[in-house]
Design goal:
eight-stranded mixed β-sheet; single chain; three-stranded antiparallel β-sheet; 11 helices; alpha+beta; 359 residues; globular
């Protein structure tokens, strides 16, 4: 763990199901204050520039008290969550601890950490790896992490542009389809994140030069007013899931257990849902149930990662890159029909909101 909370712009979407959990934990109001409510979800065709489907979150207002997706950067949310954890009777956050190794003794776990003050050892009933895609806990368990890496590279440009002025009729969140260079627009409280697909033959260093970043923005939006580039990021995307989320007294949550395409904004949310599910199991064990219910956690969350999150996000990605004209027409008609039919729109948004059990 870093010595301080991360300040990088990473995940930023909180879906209604997650906001409902935040309500239970007493932090939802503060997080909402720092976020940007998105009540529309749109899909566009880049050429010709036209709106294909416009989903209004109002159609799920009877299903959830939070009929919107909240755009709030992860590094802002963690600054709300950390003090909330520390305010509890049992919560304590130790920054600047890097896991070296751990031992599962069958009745408890001991773990060694490297800190600025030297190596320290801690003992607990269980160890939970929430330590990201390069998880030291997962590697120590030596379990499979199968999947794929998408060929596309994602180029994120964060700026103070007002995209609603540049793309008339655009909602706060837009997915713009194009087989060569698809685009995703995400508006946050003080920044707009525009994500571009990089073409296969582009040199990364060249693409990241400021002149070329600005040229890319202009090629998409046309003439733009003066603006400030606040952040840039270039990354590849992986779709992987571990063979199991549990080995003895060691468990995995979030990116340590599963990675998925960020299209749809489900990665951070599903990690939070992992933690909520696991915590509920720990409470039941504390109250006397057998810890065999941790196998239920592993099976439930792995199945959801494989059969729900990964399938949905992969389909979102496939929609972005379709090139065959017939396929694109079929995709556009399907999305348009769904957006214009109240029952289908409700089902679509419940699925997109990770509330599919309410369909």
């Amino acid at each position: 763990m870093d010595a301080e909370l991360n300040t990088q712009i990473r995940a930023s979407t909180f879906h209604p199901k997650t906001l409902e959990m935040f309500k239970e934990w007493g932090v939802v109001d503060e997080i909402i204050q720092h976020g940007y409510k998105v009540d529309q979800l749109q899909y566009w065709e880049r050429a010709p520039r036209r709106l294909i489907a416009d989903f209004d979150y109002g159609c799920i207002s009877d299903d959830t008290p939070y009929p919107y997706r909240l755009q709030c950067p992860q590094h802002i949310a963690t600054r709300v969550l950390k003090p909330a954890v520390e305010a509890t009777a049992t919560g304590k956050v130790h920054m600047g601890h890097r896991l070296i190794d751990f031992t599962d003794h069958g009745t408890h776990v001991t773990a060694r950490f490297e800190t600025a003050s030297g190596i320290v050892e801690r003992e607990g009933s269980y160890i939970v790896g929430a330590d990201g895609a390069h998880s030291a806990v997962r590697k120590h368990l030596n379990i499979g992490f199968k999947g794929k890496t998408y060929e596309d590279r994602f180029l994120l440009i964060g700026s103070d542009l007002k995209t609603e002025d540049l793309l008339p009729g655009a909602a706060q969140v837009c997915y713009i389809f194009d087989p060569k260079e698809w685009v995703i627009i995400l508006n946050l409280p003080d920044i707009v994140r525009v994500v571009f697909r990089m073409t296969d033959d582009e040199n990364e260093a060249t693409a990241m030069q400021e002149g070329n970043l600005r040229r890319r923005i202009s090629n998409f939006f046309g003439e733009v007013p003066p603006y400030i580039i606040k952040t840039t990021q270039l990354y590849r995307v992986h779709q992987r899931v571990t063979d199991t989320f549990r080995v003895g007294r060691a468990l995995l949550v979030g990116d340590s257990a599963h990675n998925n395409n960020p299209s749809g904004g489900m990665g951070m949310n599903s990690g939070i849902h992992d933690a909520a599910n696991l915590t509920e199991k720990f409470v039941r064990i504390w109250n006397g149930e057998s810890d065999s219910i941790l196998d239920d956690y592993s099976n439930e969350r792995r199945q959801y990662a494989v059969e729900s999150v990964q399938l949905y996000t992969d389909q979102q990605y496939n929609n972005m890159v379709m090139s065959a004209e017939e396929e694109r027409e079929r995709r556009n008609k399907s999305l348009s029909d769904a957006a214009n039919d109240p029952a289908k729109a409700r089902a679509y948004l419940l699925r997109a909101s990770m509330l599919e059990e309410r369909i």
